[in-house]
Amino acid sequence: MLAPVRGWAILDGVAYSGEGHDEVEVRPAAGTVKDPAAELDVRAADARAPGESEERYRQLVELVPDAVAIHAGGRLVFVNEAAARLLGAGDRAALLGRPVLDFVHPSSRDAVAARMRRAAGGERLPPMEELLVRADGGALAVEASAAPCRFEGRPAVMVALRDLTATRRTERIQSALFRIAELTSVQPDMAAFYASIHAIVSELMYAHNFYIALRDEEGGTIHFPYFADAVDPNPGRIDAGKTLTGWVLRTGRPMLVPPEVFQEMVDRGDIELVGSPSLDWLGVPLRRGDEVFGVLVVQSYTERRRYGAADCDLLTFVSQHVASAIDRKRAADALRESEAKFRTLAETTPVATFIAQGGALRYVNAAMEALTGYRRDELLRMSLADLVHPAHRERLPLNDLAPVEAASDGGEILFTCKDGGGRWLALSTGYLEYEGRPALLVSAFDTTERRRVEEQVRDLAFQDPLTGLPNRRLFVDRLQLAVAQAHRTVQPLAVFFLDLDRFKSINDTLGHGVGDQILIEVGRRLRESVREGDTVARLGGDEFILLLPGVGRPEDVNAVAGKLLEGFRAPFLVAGSELAVTASLGVSVFPGDGGGGEALLRSADTAMYRAKQEGRATWRLHKPAA
């Protein structure tokens, strides 16, 4: 619970005054406060909350991480440094007096204007995602909340802005990289694979002009199995010579070439112009082990689309997956041609490959050594079963006595490495004659990272990202199972619905960063207050819900409720400052308060609101309507 502030406080060069949290007086600070004790009067709103000194209060208000702006009459009258940076203004004074809607994207302008009118009318507005336009013209996704205030003696609106641009870009990159990993986990049709990679890269960066160049096995020529360019047609097969593509093939290093660098290389005789000159040329190598066998390239012909270091890093990551897919295709073709070519190719491919006879390893390539951590001589003294996790040994494809022409997919198996760690491998198996006897040929594709990403995606679907607790979806699933079991065993269960008291004032006064830390700590305390088999979930906002199977007797419910509320007695320590936080709790018990999960949730919710109405910081058991 926050203590109301009366007097003046300094935040980002602005002085704030007022009583409580509904409306504050805001005016520019006149300078350093000489007598802080005389200027700042902080009083506790709750007798249970310790008094806070001026210094502690200053520390709390400085925790606010967001950009803050104030507008009156539709024009900016104050912005802090964070807001100026967010809006792309070097001098925040240049923003003052500007219409607020100048910085709002046309697609959001009507909605923002309506919210401005509501805030100017005295309404506090919850956070909402909006699209702004920076001073340099760039689009900016933000989360904006607004509250009425007074600035220099007249009504105004204070707005807190949180930049969502990086968050949205990270989400897009994670999604795209996951799809790229999926594409390269199997051996696809290469033409379709190239087109899919082009489409995914185009979602992450400007890649309208995109091509793949491969070195020919013999001679110094290169060809282009995929070529998309707005200016030049596919050149077919050319001499690598002194082209930029040839330069990357020779050096094995990524290259970002703006016009001035290109001209310097031409003047030195390092390269020659082939085709139409681009504004920016970005190429990264495709590798097979230490050998560079191709180049992945994007180009820009316009000033509006320039590349930087981040684009180079992203394209380098993509090139690893493209190289893996290309190399797997080549490996499969070579294996069909002859066992002799297989040995040469297997030693250079990054895919772990081995031959087994009767379960014993007869051949392993360098990638297999790198994958498992064992030396080749160690592996050749082992059996395939020695490398596989005990739980997966029954799934081993060990029938090497009945050769077949078609390869089969052995599924994913967990291998144990020399360091004790595990790697998930997708086994592609086939049969061949090895030294005159039937043998099993296996290519092992490492799917550990893909599985990790998939697990993260699944966790996000069932887990609250802030607290790590189950979310509403997972809680409802568990509640339905618990109710079904309670029906069968004729055992009770209890649902506890917990809501923090006056939590909104914490977010409004100290910012969402402080509020988030409190929510994380609440989740931790609740987990420590219940049994291992109980479920603690966050429904959203400041609402938490608990499922306790086997709890139903009045004395048990009373004991659990008391223990949960007891966990709020200790103040919450945030950035060296103590905050008093209380909660209201509602309880429903199966079967008396509902025969199904949704009914139990509604009953517990109703009981919680009764606890708030009757004083807060307490709990109430649901009472069915008469």
Rg (CA only): 32 Å
- Residues in helices, as a percent range: 25-40%
Output the structural class.
alpha+beta
Give the DSSP E fraction (strand runs of 2 or more residues).
25-35%
Low-confidence segments: 1-62, 398-410
- What's the CATH topology name of the largest domain? Beta-Lactamase
Mean pLDDT across the residues is 80
Envelope shape: flat
Proper CATH architecture of the largest domain: 2-Layer Sandwich
Quick one: CATH class of the largest domain? Answer: Alpha Beta
Number of strands: 27
Largest sheet: 9 strands, mixed
Number of domains: 4
Distance between the termini: 35 Å
Within CATH, the superfamily of the largest domain carries the name GAF domain
Helix count, DSSP H or I runs of 4 or more residues: 19
Could you state the oligomeric state of the chains shown? single chain
Considering the chains and any ligands shown, give keywords for the structure.
626 residues, 19 helices, alpha+beta, Beta-Lactamase, disordered N terminus
Description:
This protein has 19 helices and 27 strands. With 626 residues, the chain is α+β, with helices and mostly antiparallel strands. The strands form five sheets. Strands 1, 2, 3, 4, 5, 6, 7, 8 and 9 form a nine-stranded mixed sheet that branches. Strands 12-11-10-15-14-13 form a six-stranded antiparallel sheet, sandwiched between helices. The longest helix is centred in the middle third of the chain and has 29 residues, at 309-337. The chain is flat and about 85 Å long. It has four domains: 5-163, PAS domain (Beta-Lactamase); 168-334, Beta-Lactamase; 351-446, 2-Layer Sandwich (Beta-Lactamase), CATH 3.30.450.20; 463-621, Alpha-Beta Plaits, CATH 3.30.70. Helix 5 (165-183) packs antiparallel against helix 6 (190-204), helix 9 (309-337) packs antiparallel against helix 10 and helix 16 packs antiparallel against helix 17 (512-529). Mean pLDDT is 80; it is low at 1-62 and 398-410.
